[in-house]
Specification:
Layout (H helix, E strand, L loop, with lengths): L13 H11 L4 E3 L5 E3 L20 E3 L3 H10 L8 E3 L2 E7 L5 E7 L7 H31 L18
Parallel strand pairs: 3-6
Antiparallel strand pairs: 1-2, 4-5, 5-6
């Protein structure tokens, strides 16, 4: 099963673009050796569009508020293209230090649920569901062995007086 995606940005100045991703966009990273940085990305999605050419791919970073993001990038000295509204979102573009262009947009289209988050929610629900059953099982085993029941002190309600 697929566990993630590895995106490659080809650049005429890879070092400058790595610094941009690290210092300007603030992506978490690891050094894979010899200054070769690999960046962690936020959750992603993929779409397949019809085109006359194969092997042509585009990379867009998504954000919740494109106006705020372009303002922040401008304050950091990054030139952003004017905002352009499409039916699927509000789009801008930045030019990387190496000369490549990178799309950024605020999506207006439906988005799939993050599968990792959905899996975690299901697992947590299963754990909560099984917890009372496990406590009852342990309590029954203790009763069979004659171990006295352990009472937990009750938490006092806020503002209640001690007796």
């Amino acid at each position: 099963m697929i566990s993630g995606a590895h995106v490659i940005i080809c650049s005429k100045d890879a070092e400058a673009d790595r610094l941009f991703l690290r210092d300007i966009l603030g992506f978490p990273h690891v050094d894979a050796g010899h200054g070769w940085l690999i960046f962690g990305l936020p959750p992603a999605e993929v779409a397949v569009h019809p085109d006359d050419d194969n092997d042509r791919h585009q990379l867009y970073f998504m954000c919740d508020d494109i106006a705020e993001l372009t303002r922040t990038l401008s304050e950091r000295g990054v030139a952003c293209a004017a905002l352009h509204e499409e039916r699927w979102g509000i789009l801008s573009e930045v030019t990387l230090p190496g000369g490549g262009r990178l799309g950024i947009y605020e999506p207006r289209h439906p988005r799939p649920a993050n599968p990792r988050t959905a899996t975690r929610r299901k697992s947590a629900a299963r754990r909560r569901k099984g917890a009372p059953r496990q406590r009852r099982k342990v309590a029954a085993q203790r009763r069979r062995k004659g171990v006295p029941r352990q009472r937990r002190p009750r938490a006092r309600k806020q503002g209640a007086r001690a007796r």
